[in-house]
Predict the structure.
Amino acid sequence: MELKNKHIVRSVERPIPIYPLTVTRLSRELSKIVRNPPEGCKIRITNNMFQWLALIDGPAKTPYYGGLFKILLDFPPNYPFSPPTVRFLNKIFHSNVGTDGSICHLDNIWVPVQTVESILKALVMLLIMPIPEDPMNPLAAVMYICNRFQHDYIACMWTCRFANAD
């Protein structure tokens, strides 16, 4: 409560409306991914239908090979009209992943016809082919461009340390 002009104003949080379309869409996407997951990807649901845990195997012929990357997908109540928040839970040395696990700006390229499957495929592609021209980790981006051997060595070491599949 706060006092404004000698009147008490109660600040009441309004519940965020959940659109029926959101639940229907998430259920349909989950069913499809469970039946036919993208290569190297799995989905686990938490107790909350609006939070999914994606597991992505590090692609072959990359410094991320052998790693198991955990990614949290947090869906807004108005999904698919707004994108989910997507972030790596493992530490990863990658030009398009911030130190907090955030991934390059999904908001800027999001359209409602995209799906969780398309997000997962895009993440696998980022592991295969980073985009250093749009970095969230400038050090990794510069290293990727200027000293690929050193970049790959560090990425491989971080994969072994932070994304151990065991």
User: Anything to note?
Assistant: DSSP finds four helices and six strands in the chain.
